[in-house]
Amino acid sequence: MLRTMYGQAKLLLGHGKEGSHLISISTEAHRTASSTATNFSVQPQPKQQQPQQPQVPKAAVSRARLARHLELTWRQGSASHFPLTWLRDNCQCPQCYHPESKSRTVDWATCDVTIKPKDVQVSDDGKTVIVDWLDAHNSRFSAEWLHERRFEEDARKKWLSTYKQKKHIWGSAQEENFPRKRFNFSAVMSTDGGLLQWLLELEMRGVAILEGADSDESTVRKLAERVAFIRRTHYGEEFNVKSKSDPSNVAYTEQALQLHTDLPYYEYKPGVNMLHCLMQAQGEGGENQLVDSLRVAMQLKQNNPEAYKALTTVPIDWSDRGVEDGRPFQSLHRAPVICEDAEGNVVRVNYSQPQRDSHFSVPLEQVDGWYLALKEFTRLALSDENCVQYKTKPGEILSFDNLRILHGRSSYSPAVNQIYERHIVGAYLDWDEIRSRIRVLSQQEPTPLAH
Ligand code: OGA
Ligand code: ZN
Ligand code: ZN
Asked: Where does the TauD/TfdA-like domain start and stop, copy by copy (predicted)?
């Protein structure tokens, strides 16, 4: 065991595959904040070898606070800084961490966020860092574990690559021969690689077609359960889209469905829509229209910032009322058409003529500008460069991102004597479950996450 108090020493620190790493340790906290002047600096690195600090707004952080970190220098010469409070918060001992549930249990009510170490050591094999805290607590961290959690930008980017897939925005030029890719239903059902490939396409492009499914009403449920759990809504779990005598939704008619996203009136809107074609309309009609709303939003933002502002700020009352299976429902959710996150990324689009309430609960002066903006958004969405058409065949499942892709359906002729009646079975999945599945599968499968 090499100790680092009151002196200088070179230490070997390993982190997994990359082998042992020669390091030095220092804690800035003790240089600047400790009255006992305990100094862990064992081999200060020359200035030019210091790693890039994480991007913190310096103006908002005091010098003393900035200095509260432990510096570890890896064998290759690069150094990493770990905040002392973060180290204490992430102590892996049984008092602070429950290994079976992989959960932090540090008592935050009593945890001292200004805690300092009394001593820092590195095991002889360089694989473990041991911190003795001034409150007599003791923490051990594996070098590999620390290395993975470095605050440097490259390490943070690597971690975040497992969070969400980068979106590939498309227009009809990129989808000329729609669909760009087809996925074999049996391969998706029976191989993890097949499942992963489909889900990645779904997240990146927002739309994917499976083929070769049988014509069973329970197929789409089996597919949903292969991924995670089927998402229930007031229309049930699987729902039959066909012409009905007393329809609770305009989809259950032979009429055209204008471009829309499903269920905008749910605050927690189902993330993915799967439409399994059991029987397609024999004559004209019954095609689906598909539009990447991210491209439309991007064009609107560039060409007409005022319209974009209206669609991102004016809240709309999305609603649905009715009775399904004897249960009355009255859903309502208020949100703009284009919903952005704090960084201005579009995270959800709501768009549906039938499900926009006639209550427009905004100040009078916002109304006209909003209508003009919606008209422009619709014009762009329907333009040839953005809208693709596809008529699904029996055995195909059209899957798409319901937060992003606008979809529609052209009208079709009624079946004669109920023979060859158009019949689609739909079901929903949630993005939280899909993303979890993608992460688990990516760890097992050789397929790289980004492609
Ligand atoms: C729907 C829908 C498409 C179709 O039911 O919401 O979009 O092809 N259906 O019938
Ligand atoms: Zn602990
Ligand atoms: Zn729909």
From this structure: 180-428
